[in-house]
Amino acid sequence: MSSRVGKSLYGAALAALTMLGTVMVAPPGHAEVPVPDARGERAVSATITVEGAMDGGLTRYYGEGELGGGDQTEGQPPIFELADGATLQNVIIGAPAADGIHCLGSCTLRNVWWEDVGEDAATFDADYASATMTIQGGGAQYAADKVFQANGAGTMTISDFQVEDFGKLYRSCGNCSDQVDRHVVIDNVTATAPGDTLAGVNINYGDTAEFSGITIVGDSGMGVCTWYEGNVDSGEPEEVGSGPGDNCRYDRSDITFE
Fold first, then answer.
1. Residue 21: what pLDDT?
2. How far apart are CA 160 and CA 118, in angstroms?
3. Rounded to two decimals, what is the model's pTM?
């Protein structure tokens, strides 16, 4: 049974057990990212805007109504939208997760966990080159496509993070209408199979990805960095290579396989 099918069956079972007051921690036979126990729950029917700092106190937030799709449909609204300079911390995003979190400029996500990634976990939409999106701690699982999507300009840093059952941990937009050079630093990250690749960058726009302290669990063939020829709003970008180089900066010593 595939992990996707297993997840769907698990979701139905979990809903039934919840009605009976029973909590199941993980799908049978599937080791999960260690999401903390939630200290409360909140259904979200309209995007929550964060300005300044918000501490969720490890509340689980999940979508309903317009935010209740829970699939890979493009253009879904996010659970949270962070203004330039905002910080969101100690939050669990449950299912359905819609389009997770949108950062409109520089932002910090600290100890944020995704139990079941919807469209994407978080999207970086800054419009200035000095913008930074910082992800410190936390983890994500069940991302059929991307975990972190960079659509705007600037640099994303992902550190002390855990990810499992995913397509790409990071992707620089391959076909946005406005293309710029984008950058990511990935440090002290544990990626557990199944997974496609840790980062996808557009080499023709000067993207860079830097890696250190990476642990890959369960799949020695998982990609570290994949090269694409990006385009401007004209279809899926072409994959043109992978591995270390000018755009993908790491040594073999930076990657540990377990």
1. 35
2. 22
3. 0.87
CATH code assigned to 39-257:
2.160.20.10
| pLDDT of res. 72 | 57
Nearest-angstrom CA–CA distance, 132 and 134: 6
Start-end of CATH 2.160.20.10 domains in the chain: 39-257
- Do 83 and 49 contact (CB within 8 A), yes or no? yes
CA distance 26 to 28: 6
**DSSP notation for the chain:** --HHHHHHHHHHHHHHHHHTT----S-TT-PPP-PPPPS-EEEESSPEEE-SEEEEEEEEEEE-GGG---S--TTPPPSEEEPTTEEEEEEEE-SS-TT-EEESSSEEEEEEEESS--S-SEEE---STT-EEEEES-EEEEEEEEEEEE-SSEEEEEEEEEEEEEEEEEEE-SS-SS---EEEEEEEEEEEEEEEEEEEEEGGGT-EEEEEEEEEES-TT-EEEEEEE--SSSSSPEEEEESSSSSEE--GGGEEE-
Query: How would residue 128 be classed by pLDDT, with cut points 50, 70 and 90?
Result: very high
User: Residue 199: what pLDDT?
Assistant: 98
pLDDT in tens, 169-201: 999 999 999 999 999 999 999 999 999 999 999
Q: pLDDT tens digits, residue range 143-162?
A: 999 999 999 999 999 999 99
